[in-house]
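Hi L.,

You mentioned the student needs an example of a multi-chain input paired with its predicted structure. This one should do, with 305 residues in total across all chains.
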Amino acid sequence: MDRREISFGLLIAVLLALTLSPFASQWPDGLEKVAEDKGFIEKGEVESSFVSPIPDYAWPGIKNKKLATSIAGVFGTILLFGMGCGLAKLLKRNVY
Amino acid sequence: MHIPDGFLSANTWVPAWIISAGGLGFCLKKVGTVLKDKTVPLMGVVSAFVFAAQMLNFPVIGGTSGHLLGGVLAAVLLGPYAGAISIAVILTIQCIIFQDGGLTALGANIFNMSFIGTIGGFYAYKIIKSIVAGNTGILVSAAIAAWLSVVAASSGCAIELSLSGTSPLRVALPAMAGIHALIGIGESIITCMVVSFVLKVRPDLVYNE
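Structure written out for the whole complex:
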C-alpha cells in the first residue's frame, strides 16, 4: 500500500467514527437484550475493577454527548491504526 | 456481544483467559512468517476500520441493535493469524480504554471473537471458497462466513454463560443464536461491501495463502 492508499483507508475509518458514531443505535446489543429478556442483566452491574480513561466512548469533560462520542471514536480509530501498524512491523521483524 | 464483568464465573473466565493467552501466543508465533511489507499498513487500516465500525450500532429488531464484529473481514484481508491478533487488540483497547467488555471477561471475548469469529470464520471462508471460484467465490464465501462467524461466536458466548450458571444453555443458546442470526445479516452486507471494494481497487490485498 502506498501513502495515498493508506491515507484513504484511514480517512474512511476516521470519517465513519467522526460522523456516524454519535448517531449509532442506542438500543441494547444482542447480548444485552438477551440478558434483559432472560433476567440476568443485573449480574453485569458490578463495580469495575479499574477506571477507564474514556468510559463508554465519551471523551471526558465534554458536555455535548454527540461531540464526546465523536472525539472518542476518532481517538480510538487513530490509536488502533497506530497499534495495528506498530504491531505488524514488530512481528514482521521477528522473522529475521 | 462484549461480555461485561459479572456475567461469567471464575470457573469459566479463568480457563478462557488461559486458552486465549495461549492461542494468541500461537498466533504471534505463526504470523511472523506470513506478514509482508504490504501487510504492515494494512493491519493498521483494518484495525482502525473495524474499531470504527464496531461503534456503529445498527438497529435490528424489537429494540435490539448490532454492530460489525469484523472477524471475517479482518481474516479475508490479513489472514487468520494477523486477523485474530487485530481483533484481540481492538477488544483489549475497548476493554481498557473505553470500558466496553469486562476485564475478567476479556479472555472469553477474545476466545469468541478472535478465535471462533476470526480464525473459525476464516476456515469457513476458505472451505466455501474452494467450492465457488473467482471473485464471486470470494464474495459469496465472505458473506456466508461472516454470517456464520457471528452466529458461532454468539453461541460460544451462550455456552460460557451456561458454564457460569448465568443462564441455562437451553435458554441462552437459542436466544443468542437467534438474535445474532439477524445481526449476522448486517455483518454479511458490510463485509461484502468492503471486500468487493478492495477487490475492485487492490485485489492483491485479499489474503491468498
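You could point out the following to them. DSSP finds seven helices and two strands in chain B. The CA atoms of residues 31 and 81 of chain B lie 6 Å apart.

Best wishes,
N.
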